[in-house]
Design goal:
By secondary structure, the chain is an alpha/beta fold. It has a five-stranded mixed beta barrel. Helix 1 runs parallel beside helix 8. The chain contains eight helices and 16 strands. Bound molecules: flavin-adenine dinucleotide (FAD). It comes from Leucobacter chromiisoli.
Length: 329
């Protein structure tokens, strides 16, 4: 089912997590007509409590999203659509001018409705991608059962609760050493599992050994536990190393398939590269939140980034209307 195109919007925001909601709030307060399109698959859906968001420490991440959406939707120029964006197509200059966009830049954004909502189509002067990251956990059968409770990915978010416990760090990427150092602030009873990957260099292993952290290079078979409690990491040779929880470094994917074959610059991890203004390598398309480096990937950083990029987007559109470009930015 497809809807009639609505009134053109200033910004179509793809993703209604803390980054998108925060940008949306600032932009409706700047008297802009704004659409947030959200597929309701937040990264932290595996967890019941979020930490470190000032005034909301310990709150449920779903509650944070609910409050954010409520505040955004209280403004008359706000639209929140439950849909998966499938396509972002640049308008021609004539189409953009025809839509009332004075600088000739614009986009058509189409999405498929979810949970009984209609399909959506927005014509927008600018696009803000705040779609977060999708995570690929290592393929151990039971890892999902402990992810978000015993095993986490964000050390800044969940390290405190793990103080002095026997911990695992599971990771096959080159940032595992730095993560191990970060975790050592919470517990020195730490085993780094590389699952057979050659990602911790011998001199790094020596440095870790000096602070009591060992590196286990044998492949992992699974995470083991009793009921909801994680009790260890079982290796492929059958031995079990007792651990009550810890951290895993998932592989991340920036979900921007809706751009089709429009090239967009990424960094070595696949995250979307943006300028100081928050604009991607596609003119008029901005990005914010977990999907852009450098992190840390936290709710408050995503929300702060959203407010910052909103100010830049607003100024970009003011200058675009006056024909003065971004020269003084
Ligand atoms: C298990 C876990 C626990 C965490 N705990 C904490 C914590 O305690 N404290 C903390 O500060 N941080 C925590 N984090 C990190 C925090 O969740 C992220 O930093 C934060 O959610 C990033 O916000 P975001 O707005 O960039 O992305 P997200 O919150 O992931 O939101 C992105 C939104 O975009 C939507 N989307 C994606 N693609 C499309 C599309 N094509 N069309 C429409 N919508 C789309 C998704 O459905 C989602 O709703 C945790 C993360 C995980 C994985």
């Amino acid at each position: 089912m497809s809807e009639e195109p609505r009134l053109p919007v200033g910004v179509a925001i793809i993703g209604g997590g803390p980054a998108g909601l925060s940008a949306g709030l600032q932009l409706v307060r700047a008297n802009r007509r704004i659409a947030i399109i959200d597929s309701n698959r937040p990264r932290h859906s595996a967890t019941l409590q979020s930490h470190g968001f000032l005034t909301r420490d310990g709150a449920s991440p779903l509650e944070l999203r609910r409050l954010g959406r409520e505040e955004f939707e209280a403004y008359p120029t706000a639209t929140f659509a439950q849909a998966v964006v499938r396509e972002v197509v640049p308008l021609t200059r004539d189409e953009a001018i025809g839509a009332g966009f004075p600088d000739g830049i614009g986009f058509r954004v189409r999405g498929t409705g979810i949970r009984g909502s209609s399909d959506v189509e927005f014509v927008a002067r600018r696009v803000l991608i705040s779609a977060g990251l999708t995570e690929e956990l290592p393929p151990f059968p039971m890892i999902r059962a402990y992810y978000g409770t015993a095993l986490h990915s964000c050390v800044e978010c969940d390290g405190f609760e793990k103080t002095d416990k026997p911990l695992a760090l599971i990771g096959e990427t080159s940032d595992v050493f730095a993560r191990a150092l970060l975790i050592s602030r919470f517990s020195s009873d730490l085993v780094v599992f590389t699952n057979g990957a050659d990602t911790v260099r011998p001199e790094q292993e020596r440095q870790l050994a000096e602070i009591g952290i060992s590196v286990e290079r044998r492949p992992i078979d699974d995470i083991v536990g009793e009921k909801a409690e994680m009790t260890g990491v079982r290796l492929a040779d059958g031995s079990v190393i007792p651990r009550v929880g810890g951290f895993v470094r998932p592989r991340w994917h920036a979900p921007v398939e809706f751009l089709g074959d429009q090239p967009i610059e990424r960094d070595e991890w696949g995250l979307i590269v943006v300028s100081d203004r928050g604009e991607t390598s596609i003119r008029g398309v901005y990005a914010v939140g977990d999907i852009v480096p450098p992190g840390p990937q936290q709710l408050i950083i995503a929300a702060g980034g959203g407010a910052r990029v909103a100010a830049r987007l607003n100024m970009d559109m003011i200058r675009g209307a006056l024909g003065v470009g971004m020269i003084d930015d």
